[in-house]
Design brief:
The structure is a homotrimer. Chain A is of the alpha/beta class and about 260 residues long. In chain A, about 50% of the residues lie in helices and about 15% in strands. Chain A has one domain: UDP-N-acetylmuramoyl-L-alanine:D-glutamate ligase. Chains A and C meet through helix 2, strand 3, helix 3 and helix 10 of A and helix 2, helix 4, helix 5 and helix 10 of C.
Chain lengths: ~260, ~260, ~260
């Protein structure tokens, strides 16, 4: 397995570009993490816009710099807005990220996710169970949590990427990102991030922002993972528990790259 | 009135069990508190899953370790998902908690709550006005706030518990929990908790988590109240206002019991 | 242009009245900011109630002390609840605030906002692009952000206020509030507030709370802006980034006026 750590200079440059261009990032995400996701994008230097209604979602996907679709709390009406927005993004060339939360664990969302995948997300981002489910394997999800290690899903991620043309990111203690050929490993972060809701979901949103400003989707997904890992490590050192971690994490996201 | 303080050794043991078993807790709750509720469960040691769509809610209630239904921001479609999930939990034996937010103050939710009660929640948790409304009394609710003291609702709670077979918890400066026979008083906490949104709602979610791992529903509700009271007292001492309180509260929830 | 800074003694008095009367403030707002909005109202001394379902919104608008309608994440069903609640408020005399988030940028919400304006909000609050759009100008909105300075919208705001009878507040580095005759300028706050989601939305909610307890809508909107500006300045001094700012801001809101 070819495994390359992402070189730091590019991350710093890509983060500078993100901040300079301040990409307008439409987020159709779950109701648990909307506020935190918006705050993560604002702290990092992007501009969130939660335009979610069926009457507006597709119209906005043609205006926005990037789109995130996260199926975490999907219900019927949401799924139609998601599909229309993804179709508009696909047709219009707006880069978009799919976060197939708990795919494989529940039939309805698994079907919606399969339909969304046909609309060619720029990046598919999930934990090992989710990526395996999207790749057609039994990922053994337990609700929104993975029962698999990210490393176990690498080969499924690579074949999914090769088959669909999407970049695939498998998150975990080490994140793996692949375009079907290269595989990039991003270590770092901190285990406390699994005890703060929305860190994974916000990472998907930041991937969308980077997809609007980075030279390639592979680099976009990698930059988002690397920024999260670095901010997470710093915030873990500066905090006493999951409450103060979430606060410090936003502060660190805003500071990172200036040093 | 028989009033027994809950003995500490059991709480510590029950909290240890909660953390060991990490119960998957489905939350169908209001949109104001979803993020805070998830963070409270994660900090305490449970695993939240906000599966709320009508297409999935009942399916997941059969997989989950426990279920919370909180009617805080109920609308028509939500109410159908709540009823289906509660029915699935009831039939499948999944313990579930009902938080009848503002029952009595508004007709629609009062009717939905009455129907939910027929599906035998394991625990009904509310402030004095809400519990009195569920018990068929005029509780005089003012929006989501109680106009009654928790002590005033004890006898209504006891008769409601005796009649339905549910454990009933009345929250307030002192929380009272009853299974229709015993009444347990849990003092503690801090008045600043009334100035942070979601503390009461997250308490209902933690009761659901404990209901999956504690030996009895009475002990589950009591353990959740006691953990909240202790973490609330500690966080009040370590914070400067309602913003820092919420942060410290999550930190303290994660630390509590280790000492 | 007549420009008057709001005199401090009135603010302190109005804030004292808000806290004494603790107005029950119904918020039909976007899903990104519900939790933060509730926490802002609780910290400042008001009582939030997010009653949003079509089955209850109008009923509650007759009970509540004030109503906020914020169209940030509007979808079809929400818009009907908003219109019914606004109609109930209008007929019953409940003061209500309209926050036309991203009006002008998207057709559906622009139409709903136009219909809401016919129901005579007590206060219309928006950034320069939004107020210009409501006034029938091309405001050049970029998603939820303004591309205009607040000062550029003053004359549009004044004519909108004169035509509709609403007080109009244009937010920005300097906030301008007008009843069609007087124009009040409220400087202050801090640029970091633009990097924390929900500060603008929560300001609209606090205007609604003040509208229930202040002698005039002009004074209500001004008091909310002034309280936000002062708490924002203090919080900026006490924080390290956008995460800690949001926490400090709630703490400062609770403390302000006691000194």
């Amino acid at each position: 397995m070819e495994s390359v750590s992402y070189p730091d200079p590019n991350i710093v440059h890509d983060l500078g570009e993100l901040r300079r261009l301040n990409p307008l990032t439409q987020c159709i995400t779950n109701v648990v993490v909307t506020g935190f996701t918006a705050n993560v994008l604002l702290a990092a230097g992007a501009s969130p816009a939660m335009v979610i209604g069926i009457e507006e979602a597709a119209e906005f996907a043609r205006i926005a710099s990037a789109l995130l679709i996260n199926v975490g709390t999907i219900a019927g009406a949401d799924s139609r807005a998601m599909l229309e927005a993804a179709r508009a993004a696909h047709e219009h060339g707006t880069p978009w990220v799919l976060d197939p939360v708990a795919a494989g664990a529940l039939k309805f969302r698994t079907d919606v996710v399969a339909e969304l995948v046909t609309l060619r997300p720029t990046i598919i981002k999930g934990n090992a169970s989710e990526i395996m489910a999207v790749a057609g394997q039994d990922g053994g999800a337990r609700g929104v949590e993975s029962t698999q290690e990210s490393g176990d899903a690498i080969e499924h991620a690579r074949s999914l990427a090769a088959r669909t043309g999407c970049v695939v990111a498998v998150t975990g203690p080490i994140d793996y990102i692949t375009d079907g050929k290269a595989i990039i490993a991003v270590p770092g972060g901190h285990s406390i991030m699994t005890r703060v809701t929305g860190t994974g979901c916000a990472l998907g949103a930041l991937m969308a922002s980077f997809a609007a400003t980075s030279p390639t989707p592979l680099r976009a997904a990698t930059a988002a993972c690397a920024v999260f890992a670095a901010a997470g490590e710093r915030a873990a050192r500066a905090s006493q528990g999951p409450g103060s971690f979430a606060v410090c994490f936003l502060d660190q996201l805003a500071m990172i790259g200036a040093d």
